[in-house]
Design brief:
By secondary structure, the chain is an alpha+beta fold. Strands 1, 2, 3, 4, 5, 6, 7 and 8 form an eight-stranded antiparallel β-sheet that branches. A hairpin with a 2-residue loop joins strand 7 and strand 8. The termini are far apart.
């Protein structure tokens, strides 16, 4: 699953943002708390369930927004434009991940994206599942994509 999410992220940035990503080493658990100001997240469900979370700084999110909207380097995108762009990039990564995970006939679904903007915060899902952070470098900016897989609960009658 991690390899699939990594490949989806690289493909989306190559195709939609027009930039190559340099990969870092994936980290399991809470070992890394990315310095981020803009976080997009999407829930998914199928044979497994969890979250895809995208992290960027304001500068990184602004770069992505300019590339998606075709703005020049001097144009500062508005906060609503940045929120829309990060929601869309999160949606493209999670949608590609869902499509690839559903190739074996398993039905997978994703939620709509949620974007949070601010400073000095970190997303902590209410789950005891497994977390893996994928760090990337996009030109001068670090971005992160996290996969959270929830632990299956056994229901007793």
């Amino acid at each position: 699953m991690i390899e699939t999410l990594r490949a989806c992220t690289i493909d989306v940035f190559g195709t939609m943002v027009g930039t190559a990503l340099a990969e870092g080493t994936p980290l399991d658990g809470d070992a890394l708390r990315p310095q981020s100001n803009v976080v997009g997240q999407i829930g998914f469900g199928g044979s497994r369930s969890g979250l895809v979370v995208f992290y960027a700084t304001f500068a990184g999110a602004g770069f992505i927004t300019r590339m998606l909207l075709g703005l020049d380097e001097q144009t500062e995108p508005s906060k609503p434009e940045v929120a829309d762009a990060i929601g869309e990039i999160t949606n493209m990564i999670a949608g590609s991940f869902r499509t690839r995970m559903a190739t074996d006939g398993d039905a997978w679904a994703i939620s709509i994206p949620t974007v949070t903007m601010g400073s000095d915060f970190y997303m902590t899902p209410l789950t005891d599942g497994r977390r893996t952070m994928l760090p990337f470098r996009m030109q001068d900016h670090e971005i992160f994509v996290e996969l959270v897989i929830t632990t299956a609960k056994v229901r007793r009658a």
